[in-house]
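Open question from group meeting: does this chain pack into something compact, or does most of it stay loose? Before anyone orders reagents, we agreed to write out a predicted structure and look at it together. Recording both the input and the output here so the notebook holds the full record.
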Amino acid sequence: VTKKGEALNKITKNIKLKKDLQAPIKKGQVVGKLELKQGDRVLSTTELVAKNTIPKAKWYDLFKRTVDGFN
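Structure tokens returned:
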């Protein structure tokens, strides 16, 4: 990806998550992409996929998160 001996600190990473993500999210579902750049040059683009299934939260889960947020 880079030339031998080239400084890696000049490489930037950009994570772009899909804007329309909503639970449930299935294991293996594409949730965004990772882009590695050096200046204006794109070195690599990789899809980001969900490692695990994420179920849709039930009303009780949302209520509990809200109440726990006050502590």
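Observations to bring back to the group:
The CA atoms of residues 26 and 53 lie 4 Å apart.
The mean pLDDT is 89.
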